[in-house]
Amino acid sequence: MRPELLITFLLCFTMWLCDLFLWPDLRGMLLFIFAVLLLVVYFLHKKDPPNFPPGPPALPVLGNVFSIESKQPHIYLTKLADVYGNVFCICLGRHKTVFVSGWKMVKEALVTQADSFVDRPYSPMVTRIYSGNSAGLFFSNGRVWRRQRRFAMTTLRTFGLAKSSVEQSICDESQHLQEAMEEEEGEPFDPVPLLNNAVANIICQIVFGRRFDYNDHNFQSMLKNLTEMAYLEGSIWALLYDAFPALMKHLPGPHNGIFSSARSLEASIRREIERHKLELDPSNPRDYIDNFLIEEKHNRNSEEGFDEGNLALCCLDLFLAGSETTSKTLQWGLIYLIQNPHIQGRRACLGEGLARTELFLFFVSLLQRFNFSTLDGVELSTEGITGATRTPFPFKIYAKSR
């Protein structure tokens, strides 16, 4: 049935019901008609194109948001993949989102069909943080994304992936990490803050041109905001904000922490940019910020994203990517090493590029210095907390010198 015929039929049916039940007033009748029209529009809009991925039934307007387990959303999504296949769809509010599950299908989408998946979809949360979809490295699109990605890769190769220099930086930072662990004097301690400090300092040297003391107040504030932001971006609160932005932006709740943390991180980065502007020597760039400021002078009128606002957002993206994922991998690595003590000392190369070098050198240096264990009678959990990354539950370890 064509849409206009369906609407006409429902209106006639509604008027017939009103006459049948002698509707008491005009206002009530109009409200009823309006509700019917909303349902009509919803079901017409709901119609999927041919070959659209299947998915679970969804509530009008709300979609599947409240079906998702807030603490373990990946469990819900994994169950959907078991039912509907490795490509399926759910509704987040009024918007349909397609999920790809399983490494073969993910590789097909992100590697084999990379050109088809290169752009980022609209996200109200990202738009609010990045002031649209044409800023930063990870959520920009089109010409800006291509130019900024190419520039960042070139700079990382210069300052971060030159093998001898980066390995020396990681070895030096590992020494600071070992000294901090030795200060625990054999007592049980939470390793997460120390691992965060060490990993973040590697990307800080590439982006900011310097490392921070582990007790530096501004450094710790940045790491706190980073952790908070990464957790909330992958939480149910971020899904709710993207599903109902007009409502959520006026409501109190944890989702507001995403934006306050992003603002605080951006403010800290802008202070670093101002310091670089005062000390800049175009003939001797020291890091990513210096290179960006030099490039900005040559591309001031271009539309390739070379302005200070975008510099702050690109640094934010590099700081997030360069700290959060590697630190979490080290945390999980410690848990598995403690659960399998017979493999400590063995060397394994994980990940790719800079992350692979960091993981390898940090692990090797720590295992050469310490034997790791946990408290007697405590079994470390391999479950975790889902955010933008998967985080282990809080745990404490012993680091005993060999």
Automatic annotation (TrEMBL):
GO terms for molecular function: heme binding; iron ion binding; oxidoreductase activity, acting on paired donors, with incorporation or reduction of molecular oxygen, reduced flavin or flavoprotein as one donor, and incorporation of one atom of oxygen. Its main location: endoplasmic reticulum. The keyword ATP-binding does not apply. The chain crosses the membrane at residues 5-23, 29-45. It comes from the Eukaryota. It is found in: Endoplasmic reticulum membrane; Microsome membrane. One of its GO terms (cellular component) is endoplasmic reticulum membrane. Keywords: Endoplasmic reticulum, Heme, Iron, Membrane, Metal-binding, Microsome, Monooxygenase, Oxidoreductase, Transmembrane, Transmembrane helix. Its cofactor is heme. InterPro entries: Cyt_P450 (IPR001128), Cyt_P450_E_grp-I (IPR002401), Cyt_P450_sf (IPR036396), Cytochrome_P450_fam2 (IPR050182). Pfam families: p450. GO terms for biological process: organic acid metabolic process; xenobiotic metabolic process. Belongs to the cytochrome P450 family. This is Cytochrome P450, family 2, subfamily N, polypeptide 13.
